Amino acid sequence: MILRRLCFGLIIAVTATLGSSVAAQSKPATAIQNVPWDQLDSGNCLVTKDNFGFTACPKGDLAGSIHVGLIGDSHMRQYFAPLDYLAYKYHWHLTYISKSACPVGDPSLFPTGVSSASCKDWNGRLTKYLAEQPPFDLIVNSNSSLVTHGNKLIGAAFAKTVTSQTARGTIWLSIRDNPKPNNDFLACIAKNGAKAAVACARPRALALTPPDVLVPSIKGFPNVVIADFTNAFCKTVCPPVIQNTVVYRDHSHISSNFARKMFHHLEDVIPAKFKQPALLVTQ
Fold first, then answer.
1. pLDDT tens figures, 112-141
2. More confident residue, 91 or 19
3. What distance lies between CA 254 and its chain's CA centroid?
4. Which of 131, 113, 282, 141 lies closest to 212, judged by CA?
5. Which residues of 72-86 are buried (b: 16+ CB within 10 A; e: fewer)?
6. Do 120 and 110 contact (CB within 8 A), yes or no?
7. Which of 101, 125, 126, 278 is an S-S bond match for 54, by CB 3.0 to 4.6 Å?
């Protein structure tokens, strides 16, 4: 906790020089103005890593005519607040479906050792749930590459789940998993202050290891949209601080503040037909 306080204190004091050096590497969109972030849902509907169960929680604009499913693990949940805002802006009726550390896929095709018994059970319930419900108009998905460990066999299981829904007319939007920082990035920021963006950066190739094997398994499929935000995080190297914002909250997940700065990236990849006239006025 002390380290985190030091870290964020240093970020507040980051100089303009840091901002200009980072901008040369990556220019994420700034957070939209006047968004009531504290009132938005950050993903409290989930099944935890070691527990059995299944939940599907209605969120967003419950009177909305566009039905959107947000399905995935904690790497999907890190985008829940910006997507919750988009739900109100574009009248989406959301359904949150999430289990921590559990890749989405047909459990009958899961390779040995990739997931836990509770994850396979959850995916079995997900398969049944999707088959029994009217198809979603849009499903947004992301999963951690630290769970699949670069095992390409899980891609077949994922692709089967995806095609089971796209065949029904659903648009499936998959977000490529985010790069990962060095394990000691918080200590490095505390030590290097304004120089942290350079001193604590991780080479892009290492930050993307293990690779996301789910997204490539569905690339080019009908009714599939791929969102790759990697360039918003890094070019040749991936800094843990971008434009005075700490990018990560731990060794794997992006911070809530940086997720807010990804708002426009998320909005841009949503197909136009799901963007009805805005309910909320923005600047």
1. 877 789 999 999 999 999 999 999 999 999
2. 91
3. 8
4. 141
5. bbbbbbbbbbbbbbb
6. yes
7. 125
Q: Name the CATH topology of 2-238+247-274.
A: Rossmann fold (3.40.50)
Q: pTM (2 decimals)?
A: 0.85
φ and ψ at residue 120, rounded to 5 degrees: -65, -40
Single out the residue of 38, 22, 84 nearest to residue 232, CA to CA. Answer: 22
What Å distances lie between residue 36 and 62, 172, 262, CA to CA? 18, 28, 16
The values of phi and psi at residue 111, to 5°, are: -70, 155
pLDDT of 282 above 80: no
- The two three-digit tokens of residue 65, written as one number: 């005519």
What pairs with residue 69 in β-bridges? 95, 139
Residue 276 CA to residue 62 CA, distance in Å, equals 15
Q: DSSP code of 52?
A: -
Question: What is the per-residue burial (b if ≥16 Cβ within 10 Å, else e) of 18-42?
Answer: beeebeebbebeebbeebebeebbe
Q: Return the amino acid letter for 102.
A: C
In angstroms, the CA 130 to CA 119 distance is 16
Residues above pLDDT 90, as percent of the chain: 76
How far, in Å, CA of 71 to CA of 153, rounded? 20
Closest by Cα among 233, 241, 259 to 18: 241
Q: In the chain, where are the structural domains located? A: 2-238+247-274
Output phi, psi for 107, to 5 deg. -65, -25
Amino acid identity at 158: F
As a whole number of angstroms, the distance between CA 237 and CA 259 comes to 19
The answer to whether the CB of 43 falls within 8 A of the CB of 115 is no
153 CB-near residues (< 8 Å, 6+ apart): 109, 111, 114
CA atoms within 13 A on the CB side of 120: 12
